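HOLO CASE FILE
Compound: adenosine-5'-triphosphate
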Amino acid sequence: MSETEDAAAAHQAVEDAVARERARMARELHDSVATDLAGAISLFKVYVEGHPGSAKKGPPDGTLLNVLEILERMLKQVRETLAELRPRPIGREGLVGDIRHQAEEFARLYSIRVEISANGTEDMLTSHQREVVYQVVREALTNVRRHSGSSICRVRMAFAARPFLIEIADEGRGLASGRPGGYGLVGMRERSAGIGGRLEVVSEEGRGTKVFLFGPT
Ligand SMILES: Nc1ncnc2c1ncn2[C@@H]1O[C@H](COP(=O)(O)OP(=O)(O)OP(=O)(O)O)[C@@H](O)[C@H]1O
Ligand SMILES: [Mg+2]
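Model generated. Tokens follow.
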């Protein structure tokens, strides 16, 4: 085996181990917290249905509906985390096909036009790299929808470039400086670093935001 092949095999082994560990965490989370939460919610609903009115009355029963709402929100968050830990494998239509589907959904549900362009072939990417690209595009599009106010977004995938480059650009209000963020950008950065690549965000207030994912060099 050549040195490059050795390095590639070692890298693949690390990727496989990380994927196995994430799947184990997803399993644990599913079997413990998610299952118990779902159980508690369904019991709660049975109670509320059996005692109509009691949940709507003033304190202390009036708080029941609030508790139910919080439990349902928690379950939703746990499910979202599960989906991230155990990413759905890229479908038969490939990464570009999956991203196109997501673009269509964005147009239909949120009236945001997503223009897709790609050069080269995604076959150059490992399956882990493709999953990371999909997740980064998904979170970037979610941010466009939630924060940018833009009605158009462009996703450019340069698979032929070395390193490969993915760009998600909107024409919205841009990143407001000093506003505390959540975990989306942090997660995108970590995922990019996990494949030996990097993430860059370029933004000017009022002039849109561009998210770049550079593949490994
Ligand atoms: N495309 C965008 N246009 C304008 N602002 C953005 C855009 N993307 C991100 N931001 C700003 O950057 C912040 C951080 O984004 P990030 O994805 O890390 O967190 P979030 O979307 O607020 O929460 P989370 O992703 O954890 O649900 C956002 O709160 C928002 O203010
Ligand atoms: Mg976000």
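CASE NOTES: The mean pLDDT is 87. The CA atoms of residues 34 and 56 lie 27 Å apart.
CLOSED: yes
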